Amino acid sequence: MAISCQFSAVAAVTMIALVLAAAIATLTSVITAHEPLTPGRNCNRKCVYGDTRICHFHFDVHAYQTLSRACYDCPRNTTDCHRPECIPGDGFKRRILVVNKQMPGPPIQVCQGDRVVVDVKNLMYSGGLTVHWHGITMEGPRSSRGRKKSGTPHMDGVPAITQCPIHSGATFRYSFYTPDAGTHFYHAHTGFQRGDGVFGPIIVRQPPSRNPYHDCYDHDLPEHVIMFHDWLHIPTEDKFVLRHHGGGDDFPDSMLVNGRGPRQHPNASSISELIPYTRFKVTPGNRYRLRLINPAILNCPIVVSIDEHIFTIIASDGNPIIPVNATSLVVYPGERWDVVISADNSKSGAFWMSFMGGVDCAVTEAHQFALLEYEELGFTQVFEELSFTPNISNYRQEHRSDHTLLLNMPPKPKFTEVPPPGVQVNSINSACYNDLICVADLRSPEPLPRDLRKEEANFTFYLAFEMNRIHNPHFYSRMYYDFHSMMEDQQIPTPQINNLSYVAPATPLILGGGKRERVCNAESHPSTKNCQDEYCECLHMYKIPLGSTVEMVLIDEGQFGDENHPIHLHGQSFWVLGQDRPNDVVDASITRDQVIEMDRTGQLHRNFDHPVYKDTVTIPDGGYSIVRFRASNPGYWLLHCHLIFHSVAGMELVFKVGDDDDIPSVPSDFPWCGDYKGDEF
Questions:
Q1: What is the DSSP secondary structure assignment for residue 102, as one 8-state letter?
Q2: Burial 55-89 (b: 16+ CB within 10 A, else e)
Q3: Which residues lie below 8 Å from residue 16, measured CB to CB, with a gap of 6+?
Q4: Pick from 5, 72, 341, 478: most CB atoms within 10 A?
Q5: SS3 (DSSP) at 14
Q6: Rounded distance between C-alpha atoms, residue 160 and residue 154, angstroms
Q7: For position 4, what pLDDT does the model report?
């Protein structure tokens, strides 16, 4: 379904240059289309129907540091901050983990239908590693007759579910197809490594004939992919240990945009203040697609806005939505949003792009800025803005310093939790109002499939995500320091789903693991415990017949603090049918039983009219979100809160979709792991 938009006048003027550049790109793609393996950097091309490739990438995961020797005199000499392998961060030196000494990691930019092959080598000195391809469902391609081929669920990158961790010094080859167009990202799924820098963008573009937005913008540039996130000054695992064993806080120190930005804090060092802002360049008279990605680890929804500019929101989590205009957009951890901005002919100079952190980020006022810089368009730059640069490798545009730009700009905005005037989409912990638009109020250009429009799904799960004040033996001792004997600031709650903590098996489920573990869920609690008052852990799993319709009523009970939980589902996307916060006040709360009763009496409203299709959705504090999906992709798929402190502590569960015979077999030489206890005793 095409979305009607008008083509800008300036873009029409430069059409001759663009057509010439596109012709070169098309010729290049035709020449290389039949190569068995294409270097990954060459897969960033103009997408042409029928031209699919095998795109090969090499990822080396290193221990590294911000402001390493690669940065020379950065930030005193800001030019040095742009050197290869220099990661400025916010000006504070700390140990990090990165891919190919880049943060964000190297982009994967391919065309829909390409096969992506990534050789991930673990060059860390200790610890295992897996990489998850967030937003890629691992479904197989369709044959020329329209039949779907087997997928690759063993490539999803989740330790103990789809693979064994890659041990130090080893290489694991990920190989998967890309039927899922849009804005996605990859990140480590082992421990806390995502928080230390192992993440990067995945952009899957489409041929214009398949792109419903192709008339809505003039440019979709690789340099307009924007990753923004909370940032710590110590390794993430240290922060977690200090929190759960000593009562430390779980608030971030700072925020970064594409790996850098001066720390926005009154106590920021003089060095930090010199770190250059990330810039995004536009030319008057053109419309630009910006791809927004939040890989944050803490409870840090981020409010994005640009001074004197309106967003036209066209996609979420890679899937199209009917365009909505807004002055600000909230992006939760794990979410991706695509927006279009117009660079007006009447504007010049630079404008503040604001990234204001909420909830836990608000406690430390963690926020960041970037610069939207207007510049004049020359013929040479037309080529530079495309995915390749013919014969102008020595061309460098004059780089104005931040100081020069800031002299002609108004003061940067002050930190605030108050939404900017105008329409805000995906608001923080709020019911839906005229100017505060919930995700469930958005509409997709595609209708909900007929078989999912029934009032009742085949399976309905009421899943309560809560921070429970119980004695967790992993962090407390009944004999020496019982949870309930501690001072309140030492009583760290346990994140759970339906009063259960997920425990991973020793052998990945896809390799037959989990047969010796205790499997449980809300309908089958551990029989020896009262999980309302006691800590319960198990292999939290539901088995779903292939082809079933599944509804999840995701509940944030709101019993502790103002936590909200961004929930991500692997292997599938879902339609968002409803979202609400019935008691829309500070410290709102609701129970699972209350939500079930509301549903029984017809008080939970579901929208079947073109609901949006996503893979990550937040649950408002003291509220609920209703999502529905068709279990059509056989495999073991994780559902979890995308706040890393919550998921690591057990706020996860697994859906086994299909029987063993339905799940594609792993390769015969697939790595295996598990417990070993010998047979002597």
A1: B
A2: bbbebebbebbbbeeebeebbeebebbeeeebbbb
A3: none
A4: 341
A5: coil
A6: 11
A7: 54
Question: Quick check: 316 and 361 in contact, CB under 8 A?
Answer: no
Q: Tens digits of per-residue pLDDT, 153-196?
A: 999 999 999 999 999 999 999 999 999 999 999 999 999 999 99
% residues pLDDT > 90 (the chain)? 80
pLDDT at 199 over 50: yes
The number of CA neighbours under 13 Å toward the Cβ of 328 is 23
Q: How far is CA 322 from CA 164, 303, 637, 671, in A?
A: 41, 21, 29, 44
Strand-pair partners of 338 = 291, 315
Tell me the percentage of the chain whose pLDDT exceeds 70: 91
Residue 398 has a pLDDT of 40
Mean pLDDT calculated for residue range 194-222: 96
Separation of alpha carbons 386 and 224, rounded Å: 12
What pLDDT is attached to residue 525?
82
Tokens linked to 231: 């940032």
Q: Is the pLDDT of residue 47 over 80?
A: yes
Half-sphere exposure in the Cβ direction for 7 (13 Å, CA): 8
Query: Quick check: 303 and 330 in contact, CB under 8 A?
Result: yes
Pairing of strands 635-641, 652-657: antiparallel
Separation between Cα atoms, residue 97 and residue 120, nearest integer Å: 14
Q: What is the three-class DSSP state of 211?
A: coil
Strand pairing partners for 230? 255
Q: Which two tokens stand for residue 73?
A: 């005199």
Q: Residues with Cβ < 8 Å from 389, sequence gap 6 or more?
A: 383, 395
- The distance between the two most distant Cα atoms of the chain, rounded to a whole number of Å, is 81
User: What is the rounded CA–CA span in Å between residue 87 and residue 101?
Assistant: 8
Q: How confident is the model at residue 35 (pLDDT cuts 50, 70, 90)?
A: low
Task: Give the pLDDT band of residue 10 (cuts 50, 70, 90).
Answer: very low
**DSSP-assigned states of every residue in 114-155:** -EEEEEEEE-SSS--B-EEEET---PPPB-TTSPBPP--GGG
Residue 51 exposure: Cα atoms within 13 Å on the Cβ side:
22
| Tokens (6 digits) for 170 | 């080893």
pTM (2 decimals)?
0.92
**DSSP secondary structure of 57-70:** EEEEEEEEETT-GG
Tokens of 476: 């407390």
Residues 6+ apart with CB under 8 A from 629: 549, 550, 569, 572, 573, 574, 575
Q: Measured between alpha carbons, how far is 389 from 386 in angstroms, rounded to an integer?
A: 7
Q: Is the pLDDT of residue 9 over 50?
A: no
Report the pLDDT value the prediction gives residue 31, as an integer from 0 to 100.
Answer: 41
- The pLDDT value recorded for residue 426 is 95
Whether 259 and 87 have beta carbons less than 8 Å apart is answered as: yes
Q: In 327-446, at which residue ranges do the beta strands (DSSP E only) sit?
A: 328-331, 336-342, 350-357, 367-374, 424-425, 436-437
Q: How confident is the model at residue 516 (pLDDT cuts 50, 70, 90)?
A: confident
DSSP state of 213: T
CA quadruple 414, 418, 421, 424: dihedral sign: positive
Measured CA to CA, the distance from residue 343 to residue 310 in angstroms comes to 10
Q: Which parts of 589-634 are beta strand (E)?
A: 613-614, 616-619, 624-630
